[in-house]
Amino acid sequence: MNPATGKSQFTALMSPHQELKIGASEHVKIIKKFGECQNILLQNYVREVGAKVSANTERPDIKYKFYVLDTPMVNAFALPGGYIYISRGLLALANSEAEMAAVLAHETGHITGKHSAQRYSTGTLTSLGAGILSVALGSNGISQAIGLGSDLYLSSYSRGQENEADSLGMRYMTRAGYSSTAMPSFLSSLQKHSILENKIKGSEKVSDFSYFSTHPATSERINKTRAESLSYGKAGNIKHNHYLNMINGLIYDDSSRSGFIRGQNFYHTEMDFTFNVPDGFHIVNRQSQVIATSKSGSVIVFDMVGNKKSLDPLDYITNSWMKNEKLQSSERIIVNGMDAATASFSGHINNKPVTIRLVVVRWSNNRLARFQMAIPRNVSADLLEGLKRTSYSLRRLTSKEKESLRPYYVKIVTAKAGDTVSTLARQQPFNTLQEERFRVFNSLEAGEGIVFGQKYKLIF
Fold first, then answer.
1. How confident is the prediction along the chain (460 residues), in pLDDT tens digits per residue?
2. Do residue 20 and residue 104 come from a single domain?
3. Residue 11 lies in a domain
4. Residue 74 sits in the same domain as residue 158
């Protein structure tokens, strides 16, 4: 019997001791993968709020630990044993301390609800593959070429577990003095953010890992939390202005240690390289790869690997990386003065025939840069030419480029007389969907205007 929910659960295969052991082990991997946000004041702020919402749970045996991850990905999740994570991307989207508290309380609810233990004991605790290509093929070579490793996350929660975590979360946040209305308001912002992200990518489906990947959300769930919040009344802290002051200056996108996406270009100032992708491709920056996808089904994966044996690029492709694959059109090339090689082979992705084009560049004596391109059959000649230009675009950064590149930051401004959604939105460094981005970022409904003297978030 779970004292938090009052329900019977089968969690026999994960004891409290095992929860701590598994959580501690996976925590090391999570921090290694993402790193912690270096803003100590913000880390302490999140931990203070987390301590409030987890102070009076039904599991006093758990020592809750809160971490801000250094990633623009909008996400939060919990591991067994009391480890709770929130990304700076999610902090940038939230608009009050109460909304942040709602997220932390919700994740606390997953722990007190023993949802991880329940899924583990019923055989549903899994790792999520990061293979965005959904590779369905019978070739080890293709799997090796485009396999993107695995992310350290739990499979999606069930609808019942999400609803339960929402209810427990509202219980904990209201005990801590926050308004329960922040739970449905932030779920609504998350839903609008997902819709906006799809518009930016030009797709109808979410392909990147996000909050909703492991926390399925529907309008029904938002409406349920809104109705449930009424039973708590509207009383409680919101702390809008204080929260905005705390996130002022927060890095919004990728940091210099992971590189920058600017339009169709990717820049990495610390590793000293840049390349560009064709128009119509959406770039995703992951920990060890840069991935670009298009509506045509074409995919570009870029990464760098060690080369301890100092192999020639062609030798590396034919005798090491793809030694068991039947390669076609293997040849040596030159990319911006650097020795390189290219080869291709045939395969299937999502049961559709594709050509896998490989390009390897000798970046240094012990390092190789790799492009992997999945190209569907019958793509246009213009696209083929664009992909070829991508292969040849890899180069080192100039001193001027290094000096000019910096992350985007969250900037808090106070609305002046004459400010409108349009005038504020145009100050941001986006070429598309300016007003829609501003509205989602500041939780403004369609048609809602700017209020003189009120604080708003900008990206600069």
1. 677 677 765 455 467 778 888 889 889 988 988 899 999 999 999 999 999 999 989 888 899 999 999 999 898 998 888 999 999 999 999 999 999 999 999 999 998 987 766 655 444 333 322 222 222 222 333 333 443 333 333 446 778 888 899 999 999 999 999 999 999 999 999 999 988 988 887 754 433 444 555 555 568 889 999 999 999 987 899 999 999 999 999 999 888 888 999 999 999 999 999 999 999 998 988 878 899 988 888 999 999 999 999 999 999 999 999 887 889 889 999 999 999 999 999 887 767 788 999 999 999 999 999 999 999 988 999 999 999 999 999 999 999 999 999 999 999 999 999 999 999 999 999 989 999 999 999 999 999 999 999 999 999 9
2. yes
3. no
4. yes
My answer on whether 184 and 91 are in the same domain is yes
Question: Quick check: is 314 in a domain?
Answer: yes
Indicate the residue among 220, 247, 274 that finishes a domain: 247
Sign of CA dihedral 384, 267, 201, 29: positive
Tell whether 173 is covered by a domain: yes
- Do 168 and 311 belong to one domain? no
Reported pTM: 0.82
**Residues 193, 120: one domain?**
yes
* Structural domain count, the chain: 3
- 2 within domain boundaries: no
Query: Does 379 lie in the same domain as 398?
Result: yes
Judgement on whether residues 321 and 234 belong to the same structural domain of the protein: no
Same domain, 274 and 335: yes
Q: What is the domain range of residue 158?
A: 16-130+152-247
